[in-house]
Amino acid sequence: MSVNRLLRVGSVAVASLGVLALSACGSDPEPSGSSSPGSSTSSAGAECPQGTLNAEGSSAQKNAIDEVISKYNEKCADVTVNYNPTGSGAGVKQFNANQVDFAGSDSALKPDEMTAATKRCGGNPAIDLPMVIGPVAIAINVDGVDKFVLDGPTAAKIFQGTIKTWNDPAIAKLNPGVTFPSAPISVFFRSDESGTTENFTKYLKASGGGAWTGEPAKKWTGTGAGKEKSAGVAEGVKSTKNSITYVEWSYAVDNKLTIAQIDNGSGTPIELTADSAGKALAAAQPAGTGSDLALKLDYATKAAGAYPIILVTYEIACTKGLPAEKTALVKSFLSYFVSKDGQASLTDLNYAPLPAEIQTKVDAAIQAIS
Amino acid sequence: MTAITENKPAYDGQALDLTGKSGARAFKNTLATVLIVLAFLIAMIPLLWILGTVISKGYHLLLNADWWSQSQRGITVRRQGGGAYHAIMGTLIMSLITALIAVPIAVLGAVYLVEYGKGTRAARVVSFMIDILTGVPSIVAALFIYAVWITIFGFNRVGFAVSLSLVLLMLPVVLRSTEEMLKLVPDELREASYALGVPKWKTIMKVVVPTAFGGIVTGVMLGLARVMGETAPLLILVGYSKNINLNPFNGFMGALPTMINQDRTELALQPAADRVWAAALTLILLVLVLNVLARLVARFSAIKSK
Questions:
Q1: C-alpha distances in Å from residue A294, one per residue of A90, A231, A281, B88
Q2: For labelling alongside B187, which of A45, A224, A301, B219 has CA 20 to 30 A away?
């Protein structure tokens, strides 16, 4: 075989790979029909920078941010926003390692994380911007029960493992007229470290009346069987009779699970709605210093109509210190996220939009980024 | 095999008689045949099951031209539409770069082992190292590149870093298969070449490598097929992007395994579930196409022995 022959065969192989690769010149799909043709063409051209924004973090806000990115691209077609839902902890780490432009997290920066973040931002502090409220549902699968009421202490006992069967008097007392089987309660929990677990255990600790003995943490310390990620626990409850779990609202709805109403001590059981979750956020206290908007949620709130088990997911960004073009992108995207348009798209996805006064504060903080 | 065919004429005519009488041997024969066929069928069950499931759940999106020509930009898990163009391109680009780096090193390494280093201490060391490299799990290769690329050099996560870690996985596969192929080239060919006064390097270039060319290409394709489905390096070394990014040196990049991983958490939603199956089928098809190409190249480049 001659070198010519070699070259020929080689080029055939390369060419066929190339043809395979380039046969279709790819493109992006047309924006979905929801946008009116007039508004999609650079209606706010002045506010639209160009470039790519990379972000990473909380999986609890993935669906929200995906939707907002999609809507944002109808307005600003020249901006590409990537979001990787690898988890809050990973997001903060990647942000501090200068790998992404902003991070998504279910909990505000801890002091040591803030130190690292300040270093990453060139000596300027990073900022926690509350962006989405993700209610956590207690979801059950019990034959014949489609309305279910729980209160803090009972929930804590179930997830701690001190209440073991469905026909326990404590459950019966909260649900008059409902007959429960005498079957044991199968509890599912998140086996991965999760912001959802952390917020849920904070609730159990705060309103469980001492029945929850562990400390709130990303890692589960209660009873039950572990499943990976929100999809895992939701699937577990869906496929197991007489089971219970805690999971983001959207997963409970998508899997058609029965969602518990919570009696927060105000006397009436509260159904999980965007409105009732928003009310709980109104009871939150600011916890951050300066322009930082970290919130301290009141999980033991007794406010009428406030659904207490919520988590706030933050975007974490530099107040200063990013390159100018990245700053413009971050500001443009985040201010769209917090705007009325951005927040309005969230309710359909089973998130709760931010209350108006918090929206205003967050927007002001974003405008102050330079 | 040869023994049986050689013996056959001697027993001709009596053969029927013998098998008829020896019930125990016939029984053993039947039993072994049944067991072997059974084992084969059992081995086939998972393969057919996987193929059947993936094809039946994934084929309908693949029939849509958009699947091959559009990205997932602006498509959320609740929405139909979009395609896998960004992921297909990402997988192809990263694999191609991997091959461009790994194949020359692997082929040259194999040439050294077979032609130059036979029996030397250096060759034994190289061979031993390749054996170790074969056993390195993909996650370790990925973390190693993470440590070098990001922790030490401070670069960003990009597609090229993935390629670098895939090189570590592809190199031993290609090197070993090339080595075997070169060993199969008969020494007579080399000796004939030397006898005509052809220098060693020219003998290797024009006689040894061309003779083994088909086998080498097959090895390369198998190596590619091996790295195309790797997920760990993608998860660690590059962010997933739903948008088209053809630049392996800048920004997040989509790939088929990470596309599957991305939508996997939302299987309760039909559009996402459809895309997961379709992306899985696309990946299988890509690997299949590569294998078919490898066969074709091997067939057409085979040295014809007249």
A1: 19, 28, 12, 40
A2: B219
| Co-location of B30 and B90 in the same domain | no
Q: How far is B35 from chain A (nearest CA, A)?
A: 38
Q: Structure tokens of A90?
A: 């990973």
Binding site annotation covers A195? yes
Residue B175 resides in a domain: yes
In a domain, B69, yes or no: no
Full-model pTM: 0.82
Q: Which of A100, A21, A357, A127 is nearest to B286 (CA)?
A: A21
Which two tokens mark A18? Answer: 């190339």
User: How buried is A169 (Cβ within 10 angstroms: 0-12 exposed, 13-18 middle, 19+ buried)?
Assistant: exposed
**Alpha helix positions (H), A175-256:** 195-207, 229-239, 249-254
| Secondary structure class of A184 (helix, strand, coil) | strand
Rounded to 5 degrees, what angle do the CA atoms B285, B287, B290 make?
Answer: 110
- Identify the residue whose tokens are 């469905």: A166
Q: Which domain holds residue B270?
A: 85-300
Residues of chain A above pLDDT 90, percent: 41
Q: What is the pLDDT of residues A40-80, one digit of tens each?
A: 333 444 478 889 999 998 888 888 999 999 999 988 888 99
Phi, psi for residue B287 in degrees, rounded to 5: -65, -40
CB B30 within 8 A of CB B249: no
Nearest residue in chain B measured CA to CA from A348? B78
Chain A partners within 8 Å of B262 (Cβ)? 85
Residue whose token pair is 């962006």? A131
Best probe of the B interface among A4, A12, A27, A62, by most B CBs < 10 A, is A27
